[in-house]
Design goal:
Layout (H helix, E strand, L loop, with lengths): L5 H9 L12 E9 L1 H5 L2 E2 L5 E18 L15 E4 L4 E4 L10 E9 L1 E2 L2 E6 L8 E9 L2 E9 L3 E5 L10 E2 L4 E8 L2 H4 L9 H4 L5 H4 L6 E5 H7 L2 H12 L2 E2 L5 E3 L3 E2 L5
Parallel strand pairs: 1-13, 10-14
Antiparallel strand pairs: 1-6, 2-3, 3-4, 3-5, 3-8, 3-9, 7-12, 8-11, 9-10, 11-16, 13-15, 16-17
Amino acid sequence: MIFHNFRAKHILICLSFIGIVACAPQTGSLEVRANGEDFVRQGFVSKDGWAISFDNVIISLANVTAYQTDPPYQSITGETPEGESISLAQVHQIDLAEGDENAAPILVEAIEANVGQFNAIGWNMVSSDNGSTVQMIGTAVKDNTTISFNILIEDTYSYICGEYVGDERKGFVSEGEAGEIEMTFHFDHLFGDADTDASEPLNTGALGFDPLANLAFNDTLEITQAELEASLSADEYASLLDNLATLGHVGEGHCFEAQNGYTAHEE
């Protein structure tokens, strides 16, 4: 008998010599990656003219779960995706600035996965050993001033996101092969981007770096979130909080953060 489609071939392979169907699902692997983008790897200029470069951007990730959903998941709802899921068992502390300026997104973990498209992903950002969920270490340069900074953020975050949005689609796992899914972190949301028009929501809503530079002592800024709350104005601190919540994306795709809602800037 000739089989003319993949499903029929798969059924044939699954039949035992005694005629009992007992085959395992087809599997490959899913590489879960985290990407701070070129803003972290290569640096950028903030909306207020500070050239920011990062030595380390350390985040802690927990409860990372990828989903196969049909129909595709809409993150604006904030609901938990329904469908097949796989999760990473460990908490992962990673440095988004690891590697050179052309480094690939960080591999968090590769996990065995059933064939199909993983078109939704959720994760938590949790406290590391030093109590921070996000630690940014680097320098900011403007005119003749260079400020070394070490900024620790302690708030926790929980994201649910749909399919990756970018130049290519992601999340596809084929039999015996590796697919890839990505958690993306938009640090330009915190500081703004001089290459983006000043009137764009990215820049009008961003804190910038000037308010942080004003807190530096002897061109050094070592500061915790509690100290930021005590030192920034109420509006500046609110801007910081709003934009920290929008860090999590899937490429350019927006997510839902449990405490703060949908991560899209108003446009």
